[in-house]
Amino acid sequence: MTTHPANQQFDVIVVGAGPAGSAAALLAARAGLKVLLLERGEYPGAKNASGAVFYGSAILNELIPNWWEQAPVERHICRRDIAFMSPTTAVALDFRSAGVGFATAPYNGFTVLRPKFDRWLAAQAEAAGAFVLTSAVVDDVLREKGHIVGVRVRREQGEIYGKVVIACDGVNSFLAKKAGLQREFHPHELSLGVKEVIGLDPAIIQDRFHLTDNDGIAFEYLGAITEDVHGGAFLYTNRDSLSLGVIGQVSSLVERRKRPYELLERFKAHPAVAPLVRGGKLREYSAHLIPESGWAMKPKLYTDGMLVAGDAAGFCLAAGLYLEGMNYAMQSGLAAAETAIFACQKNNFSARVLAAYQKNLKQRHVSTDFRAYRHAPSFVNGPRLQNLYPEMVARGMEQIFRVDGTPKRKILPLTYRMVRQSTIKPGQLLRDVYQVARAYLW
Amino acid sequence: MVMTTHEEKMRTVRFRVGATPHIVVNSEICRNDCSVHACVYVCPANLFVPLDDGGILFNYEQCFECGTCYVACNQEGAIRWSYPDGGYGVTFRES
């Protein structure tokens, strides 16, 4: 297709060494392709921040059996809480499992520190034969007769040619936009996460969260925790630290004129959270955008000579019960690699052949999951489900449990009175119940 | 210490500052066309400083490269951005 000598051309150029990019590079290199993995950071993971719970253990286990024995993982998650908060109260649903897959291999999820985990994963791709080039920013795609035939790295003679480019350059994907596959985003489609890693003695972590050995917890918080900003908060245990943070929809932060790091301080000061973080010492503060709208912000996923995967493709499922990104990043990266391998076999890199990506995404349950939950993000990440109702539950429980000599009210009249006192209209409440059902039940 | 000021937070982050700014703010637009100045509130690194004349002063050196300012800015062309040169900018170690 291109006229460039074979020794100057890669089969696959992967842009971005996060979980999507490294998984793609690993699989393509194992198939014997000549793979280049480009990363703009000083090392893979240097620019990456998320919660971070990695729910893709079973996926990675197919590529690297018992991967957790060699990877820098923190703790495996066998306890999850979802807490509804008012400014002074918390009501939590506490899930704990010693069952198969949670407390036993391959485990359900691990907390990880992204700069360490992502670096390790990129090293696996390198060991499989991919060339890894760090400190390399990609500014644009290269085109010949309308086909994408490579990328331009910001340096002298930065033109690099490849048969397929896989854009895994994250939520802000400049590459997807340069290729004409993605539009500009609206501030209501993205959320900002700010996070702190707080050092704490492992013995204290185990006692405080009732954990043995390398068990870990993932706590998520809804309600008044972000005041009136649409969002939530999280707290996860690492080996000798906690990862905690606040997530707020960008448009909502703007409207309420709230500074994200001030919300973070208020979260830590909440009476249900303060005892959990007490005595800790801040190690690192970080921030990152989250493509929370999922299916609604999905770009066109392929064009002549290029595929898009991971956050760049909006494959981040932020839908209330589910807060997953790294697993879908990895699955979509693998699906992209499978597509690139198929195109190399056909020696045809046109959009018509790369359209196989859609089938591969389906087989890896990426597009099917996002399609199934397509109604959830716009609704779940809204004011009533993230703020109002959780706070009402917390306040309601407070009233039910309070014994102060006044007559006890039954739950239905209590609920009726709370709805009457709130800004919610009964009709709206019924519509919301239907929406929740549509988002999660069928 | 668990409760920290914004300055204390920023001191825990490593930045390798490049020679050229990767974000450019056209303060003329901030002064004449924008009354919201969303960037001032949403930036997690607090890098946008409102000036008395209605303009915005921006300091690129401690930027997380998150892109929030660009998404939040309601005025076309007020913020132009790309990533810093390879190897420069924020370098997370523990996040």
Entry summary:
The complex is a heterodimer of chains A (442) and B (95). With 442 residues, chain A is of the alpha+beta class.
User: What's the helix-strand series of chain B?
Assistant: HEEHHEEHEE
State the CATH class of chain B: Alpha Beta
- CATH topology of chain B, by name, is Alpha-Beta Plaits
Count of helical stretches of chain A:
16
| Biggest β-sheet description of chain A | 9 strands, mixed
Range of strand content of chain B: 15-25%
How big is the Rg of chain B?
14 Å
How would you sum up the major sheet of chain B?
2 strands, antiparallel
Shape of chain B: globular
Count of helical regions of chain B: 4
CATH structural fold name of the domain at 6-71 and 114-184 and 293-364 in chain A: FAD/NAD(P)-binding domain
Question: Which terms would index this structure?
Answer:
heterodimer, A: 442 residues, alpha+beta, FAD/NAD(P)-binding domain, nine-stranded mixed β-sheet, eight-stranded mixed β-sheet, B: 95 residues, two-stranded antiparallel sheet, 6 strands, 23% helix, globular
Description:
The complex is a heterodimer of chains A (442) and B (95). Chain A has helices at 19-30, 57-63, 114-127, 174-178, 202-209, 250-256, 260-269, 274-277, 326-346, 351-354, 356-363, 366-372, 376-380, 383-401, 411-421, 426-440, and strands spanning 9-15, 35-38, 53-54, 73-85, 90-96, 110-112, 131-133, 138-144, 147-153, 159-167, 191-199, 215-223, 231-237, 241-249, 281-290, 302-303, 306-308, 317-319, 322-324. Chain A is of the alpha+beta class and 442 residues long. Among the domains of chain A are: 6-71 and 114-184 and 293-364, FAD/NAD(P)-binding domain (3-Layer(bba) Sandwich), CATH 3.50.50.60; 383-440, no CATH class. With 95 residues, chain B is α+β, with helices and mostly antiparallel strands. The chains are: A alpha+beta (442), B alpha+beta (95).
